[in-house]
Design goal:
Blueprint (H helix, E strand, L loop, with lengths): L2 E5 L5 H10 L3 E5 L3 H8 L11 H12 L3 E4 L2 H6 L3 E4 L4 E2 L5 E2 L1 H13 L5 E4 L7 H14 L8 E4 L9 H7 L2 E5 L2 H14 L14 E3 L3 H32 L3 H8 L22 H8 L4 H11 L1 H13 L6 E5 L14 H11 L3 E5 L5 H6 L12 E4 L19 E4 L13 E4 L6
Parallel strand pairs: 1-2, 1-4, 2-3, 4-7, 7-8, 9-10, 11-12, 11-13, 13-14, 14-15
Antiparallel strand pairs: 5-6, 8-9
């Protein structure tokens, strides 16, 4: 049984803490927000994105069993732990410039309680070289200890998505890279003791903890896997533009291509949302500003909302004063999360074209949308609809649900064309359909 401290009890950190405690370890979750600590201490998920049911059930159980507690005193929690896992997110501005403020504060708090032989693991996605070049120095300065000699230091990227963290922890190998060989070994041993893994016959080696040569290799792996997705999506988004020009349904093309085992084309979409894929390429560019492919992909994806509005103008004519309903504020279907959601760029593009956008989402009330700075749909009649989020509820929508709508722009290919008879239905890359 281990004493573990998890720093940051958000959508990723809390399920991690629950997972560690469910394996029989004693876990202290540290978070600066008193309301978060109070909720967790009572066995309830904090307010915010809707928790995954499995994690919510386990939370109540491990708190009741005394295996998980919560505190605002990070230094004290670190002082009592043999392993400290930091999950505080790295924030970025609109240009992708990292703001290390929250992570620096968390690091300094951990340093205030850091003991010899403790393992410190960063799971927050970081620019390459950050663990060794920035956080090792801060931990040393605040503790008087030496990284690699007195305490182990690793980077082990989170490879999970909010809403399905526990399932993703089981499915994907856990990557660990340390600032030296001993740190890597200590980190790998720790994660083997706190995680379970599903069989993965598709992998070349067994699913489980995979040790990498260095912290930099692990940092690189995290940025590379999400940047790959951004580049892939940008490619199919550009294919979609050409498909619209030549009258070809790109959906058929992608299905045909992916029947060949070496083709793995993603699907085009009106926006790339969430706090990973739109952000991590910018963190990569922070290290490698001359990566022209990465930069071009990010710019291509950021341009899609404007392109979608252009398709709407092509179908309706000038949008000045036209009421347009935007379906979906969330960054992805079925999840209460608006981080870097395409809804913001879409609303901005509609307004720039003179339209009057109104946003609705089955997971958000009018007051919540207004608090996000979005023009909430209060039942006003609209002439056009744009599907921004792939919520499963939108599969059942049809013309009967939105009388008066003349054009439907489905930015996610989720609507059923049979339900929209009498309405012009457009999909990205649909060849004008």
């Amino acid at each position: 049984m281990r004493d573990i401290c998890v720093v940051g009890l958000g959508a990723i950190g809390l399920p991690l803490a629950v997972q560690f405690a469910s394996k029989g370890h004693l876990v202290t979750g540290a978070d600066p927000a008193p309301e978060v600590v109070a909720a967790v201490a009572s066995g309830r998920p904090p307010a915010g994105p809707e928790p995954e049911p499995e994690a919510a059930d386990l939370l109540a159980q491990v708190v009741a069993d005394g295996r998980l507690r919560a505190t605002t005193d990070t230094a004290a929690a670190a002082a009592g732990a043999e392993a400290v896992v930091i999950t505080v997110p790295l924030l970025t501005d609109a240009q992708g410039e990292p703001d290390f403020g929250q992570l620096d504060a968390a690091t300094d708090a951990v340093a205030g309680g850091l003991r010899r032989t403790t393992l410190v693991s960063y799971e927050s996605t970081l620019p390459i070289g950050t663990v060794r070049g920035r956080f090792a120095r801060r931990l040393e300065a605040g503790s008087g200890l030496v990284a690699g000699r007195d305490f182990a230091l690793v980077f082990s990227p989170g490879r999970v998505r909010a809403g399905r963290v526990l399932a993703d922890l089981r499915r994907s190998p856990k990557l660990v890279g340390g600032i030296d060989e001993a740190s890597t070994e200590q980190g790998a041993e720790f994660y083997r003791s706190v995680l379970d893994f599903d069989p993965r016959p598709d992998l070349e080696r067994a699913n489980g903890v995979w040790a990498l040569d260095s912290a930099e290799a692990a940092e690189f792996a995290k940025l590379a896997e999400t940047t790959y997705r951004d580049v892939n999506i940008a490619l199919v988004n550009q294919f979609a533009r050409y498909a619209d020009r030549v009258g070809v349904d790109l959906g058929q093309v992608i299905e045909a291509c992916n029947s060949q085992p070496h083709s793995h084309l993603h699907r085009p979409g009106i926006a790339v949302g969430g706090d990973c894929v739109p952000v991590h390429p910018r963190l990569y560019l922070w290290n490698d500003p001359h990566a022209s492919v990465v930069r071009a992909a990010r710019e291509a994806n950021e341009a899609v909302p404007g392109y979608a509005v252009g398709l709407l103008e092509g179908a309706l004519g000038p949008l000045g004063g036209v009421a347009v309903g935007v379906l979906g504020a969330a960054s992805r279907g079925g999840v209460r999360e608006t981080a870097y959601s395409g809804v913001f760029a879409l609303v901005e593009a509609l307004r720039a074209a003179g339209a009057q956008p109104y946003v609705s989402d089955p997971l958000y009330g009018v007051e919540e949308l207004t608090a996000l700075g979005l023009p909430a749909d209060e039942g006003k009649p609209v002439s056009a609809l744009v599907v921004q989020t792939d919520h499963p509820q939108y599969r059942e929508l049809g013309a009967v649900d939105h009388p008066g709508v003349r054009v439907l722009l489905d930015g996610r290919r989720i609507t059923d064309p049979a339900r929209w008879e009498g309405v012009r239905r457009i999909v990205l890359g649909g060849g004008g359909v």
